[in-house]
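Annex B. Sample input.
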Amino acid sequence: MHLLVHGQAVPFSFRNLSINEGLSQSSVVDIATDDAGFLWLATQDGLNRYDGRELVIFKKNFDDITLTTGSRLGKIVNGLNNSLWLITSGGRLEKLDLYNETFTPFRSIGADSIQLPPVSCVYHDSSNVLLIAVENDRLYCYDLNTNKVNGALMHSVQGIFKDSDNLFWLLTKRGYATVRMKNGRFDVGAPENGDVHPSGGIETGLTDVSCSTIDEDKSHTLWLGTYGNGLYTKKKGEKKFVSFTGYNEQTKLPANLVIESVKAGAAGQVWVGTYGNGLYVIDQEKATITHYVVNKKDPFSLSYNDVLCIREDKQGGIWIGTDGGGVSHYDKRLNNFAMLTNSNVPDDISIEQVRAITTDRQGGVWIGTSSTGLTFANSRNNSFETRHFPPAPNAQGNYDRVVSLYTDTEGDVWVGTQGNGLLVIDGVTKKVKTRFYPDGDKRRFIPDHTIWCILPAPGNQVWAGTRNSGLCLIDKQNGLVKIYSNYRSGNRTLENNVRSLTLIDDSTLCIGFEKKGIQFLNMNTGNLFVKPNPAIDSLIAGGTIFKCTWYRYPMLWIGTLGRGMVGCNMNTGETYTIDDQKGLPNNTVYGILPDEKNYLWLSTNRGICRFVPPADLKTVNRSNFTVFLAQDGLQSNEFNTGAYHKAADGRLMFGGINGLTIFHPEQIVLSNLSARVVITQAMVNNQPLVSDTGMAYKKVLHLPFSQNAVSFNFSALDFVAPRRFNYYYQLAGYDTKWIDAGNRNYVAYTNLPPGRYVFKVKAALQLPDNSPVTELVIIINPPFWRTAWFLVLCVLALAGILYAIYRYRINQLLSLQKVRNRIATDLHDDIGTTLTNISILSELSKKKLLQKEEAGTFLDRIAEEVHNSSQALDDIVWSINTRNDTLEQTVARMRRYAAEVFDAANIVYSLQLEEQFEKYKLNMEQRRDCFLIFKEAINNIYKHANAKRVEIKVWIEKGHLYMNICDDGKGFDTTTITHRNGIRNINNRIEKWNGSITMSSVKGEGTVTKVSFPLT
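Annex B, continued. Sample output.
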């Protein structure tokens, strides 16, 4: 317990991290902080990474073997280039690459693959040389640049330390050795006496002591811990270590301590962690030693007495790893407040539900509780006493409810109760000197059993605010002097329930009522008056309950239940309401106290806050408030009405549901207003991001277009107040402004269009204007059909298609023109020629009319020409009719033509045709040429072959049309050159369609014609 009297510092309190907070196991054997600011905790069952809010556990286990003569503990050692060196279970050496969170085991080292026995300790030098001490009495210098290894004999090295003079200290079971390293190596040997020392005149010492740990403070003094021989120290320039046992009899340090860890903190203290004896903190400036051990009743005590390691983080916080209690954390920013609770007072002392506070001239603290009497805390000897008062006649309810306290100039304590009247107690003897209550005699009478508030008045008198009888002026000797209530006619109070009293000036008293607002009393004239104020009237109309008042020219401040704090300028009447929207942590204000800088300290249902009023109260925002919570050392987040007091020495005291909080405002160390934020996790499409780079180090995130839903967890790297930071984020390219996320450290985005974004996040306790910004570039690649190359390709393809359509159209027009030209040519060649012949034959027949036989010949020829003309015209019309596009129609016409020709000539013929012609289509030209080839072959047989029998076979095979035409005619010599066009026309048409024709003929035996061409 500590009452924090003037001039005293707050005793150290610790915040403990255990398995209840997510730690993987309770034995923390080593601790390290990396370059990013994360804290790493090695336990028997897992490696823990801590960011102040969350623990991430890696499945690596560490040894925890402790003896009074030596220990084998796992290690975490900082390496170069974002790495940590680990000595895991069994003395296995591993390297953790923080950049990609991968572990690399080192079972052997060097170009010669030297096998490593179990490793006891390791040190990574800035020259990139790794010093490795192993359990077979060897020490290796492993140059990671050259992959070369130099070894030396060294007895049981338990620790390696490099001091500010670049001298290496090797701690062994037989003292220590010092050595310098040059060019990545040093040589050591064994002297004749078997002790260990380097060969080049390097010193050894404490050869009969098992050395465990060493550190160097700011003055370059070395502090060396041992197993069973306590603590040694050596100042700069001195030759030898000397045993350190304290400064005097009052600050004694045992000489037989088993010391596992020593840490010289940046603040000047030396922290000594022992096995079994807890923690010692040496303050060299004050020449004091403070001993800390576990107190199971105090949640802010050291977590366990077996201390294994002590490390300092980048913010100056001290982390103490214990063998069974997890880790204890000390930071001066967590050490602002002293408190009295059940955890640090005797069991018979009442301290819960504090309702009233006062201090006496000796610094003693009087504490009124809600139902368990009055407790006195003596600051001179840290003793306690709780007093209970007998009930007054006709007392109401619990007579032990003390709700108001005041110490007068004579040292007497006025005690206002709820239901048991008003008492005056001798501040020295603690005896009741006077009692006032409704049934008392004339000099002891007051109209009410409940006294909510007490304020001093001149002449050994007090003003007392009652629950049901208004305001009373009471003289300690003569009793009730004056009463102001709502019952009286004329000069009446607004109501009878008076909750607060505040002096405006020497003649004006401000009376705060629970429900009716504010009224003023001119103490010289005795007149009550009000100052009209629409804002306050509006609060009253809304049923607002007033809790406290405080005045400092020209502002009257009013705390309310659920409506925040109201500030009223008594000169201008301007009124300002300050609530949680403007930065107040909670809208219920129980108490208001000023400090020496005129800052206001407020107690609420969410801790205590410091309010720095700006010049213009219209501009109040979060930056004007500093909030402190139970985690900062308060008795609780919830405080009580009436439980606030400012001592004569400047201490502020606030009471709540668990006890009393005490502090010196000028000694408050504020938390960092901003902190660097790291992104701790990323999710893509609700799945953890798999990446070759840890999120804390990742700068650019590439995603395909299908992975366009992302979310991030982030944390401010501050171990004192991580959950009180407010986060602000923006996705540049998507969000148009910064978004205030409060203390929520998570954000999600869905359905992000492809593009380049920059995710930005920052954190601040107040406003984020000067906070560092963490950025992550996010590139969501578009689908291939939205890429530039694809769009260019599409444009080119479209242009090609349009050009193809254009060419197709041109070709169609050309084809149409060609058809027209062919039809015209055919009409001219076939029909025109025939008509000319008919005309000539007609003229000749006219001349031979008288010669019947010759005229008949001409007429027969005219009839033949007409038939041929009709047939040619029919061929032309058939070839251009689209209904004849199928091969089936072509073959059918071929069948009809063969029948017409051979039936008329009495030639026996046979046709073999397949049934699958209907599924094939021929274009107009191909259809025409196919028929004309057939027709020409049939006509040749009809006109020249003198055949009696003809066999025709037409079939399709492998996309080709085949025609075989055999006759038994007279045949001909196929090698004989002829001037006729029939065969030439057939060949031309066959070549036109990339076909082939073979003709074989034997005179007297007939001719075989074979035709084939592809169907297109």
